[in-house]
Write a structure and sequence with these properties.
The chain is α/β, with parallel strands linked by helices and 191 residues long. The chain has helices at 13-22, 30-40, 42-52, 64-71, 75-97, 131-142, 146-154, 159-163, 178-190; strands spanning 2-6, 27-29, 57-58, 61-62, 105-108, 123-128, 168-171. Strands 2-5-1-6-7 form a 5-stranded parallel beta sheet, sandwiched between helices. A two-stranded antiparallel ribbon has the order 3-4. α2 (30-40) crosses α3 (42-52), α3 packs antiparallel against α5 and α6 (131-142) packs across α7 (146-154). The longest helix has 23 residues, at 75-97.
Length: 191
């Protein structure tokens, strides 16, 4: 069984995934794998060079600043990047899934729903936290300002919209224990 796990920036997705991993559940971190594939996969390297020019790679490494600068306010270019990257990541995920021997696997992806990736999965888990908690986490993790975090949050789907596509929700705030919630979901997924 393939299960997605998603949530907004600072919601606690990684922490939740680490707990699932401690239960023996394999986790595919789609965003990390996408970064790797963008530098290694021939189709992505040539596609990025077509979109951004040859200078987009320096010594085989993606010039992230150049890409960020070019797509910052260009939604059409961002859509082209997503259309290029998402199918390759999907193929890589399927290859990874076929090597796993667990009763179910997790695919962690920030834009799982926005990209339509949930359509290829059996279930989806949403990780949520209050905006104030999310802002504090991202400031601590990334050393950015509250305004920068809010801008990122505004560019993502709100939890209300995400909930429509999800089977489970883990509330990752400072008041609720995450582990019992995960254990309940884990036992349901093993049925």
């Amino acid at each position: 069984m393939k299960v997605g796990i998603t949530g907004g920036i600072g919601s606690g997705k990684t922490t939740v995934c680490k707990i699932f991993e401690s239960l023996g559940v394999p986790v595919y971190y789609a965003d990390n794998e996408a970064k790797r594939l963008i530098e290694e996969h021939p189709r992505l390297v040539s596609g990025y060079k077509k979109l951004f020019g040859d200078e987009v790679y320096r010594n085989g490494k993606l010039n992230k600043r150049l890409v960020a600068k070019m797509i910052f306010d260009d939604s059409k270019l961002l859509n082209k990047v997503n259309a290029l990257v998402h199918p390759v990541v999907r193929e890589d995920f399927i290859g990874w899934v076929n090597k796993q021997r667990a009763p179910y696997v997790l695919e962690e992806a920030a834009v799982l729903l926005e990209s339509g990736g949930h359509q290829f999965l059996d279930k989806v888990i949403l990780v949520t936290a209050p905006v104030t908690v999310r802002i504090a986490r991202v400031i601590k993790r990334d050393g950015v300002t509250p305004e920068e975090v809010l801008k990122r949050i505004r560019n993502q789907w709100p939890d209300e919209k995400r909930r429509r596509f999800c089977n489970y929700e883990v509330l990752s705030d400072d008041k609720h224990l995450v582990v019992p919630q995960i254990l309940n979901i884990h036992s349901e997924l093993l049925k």
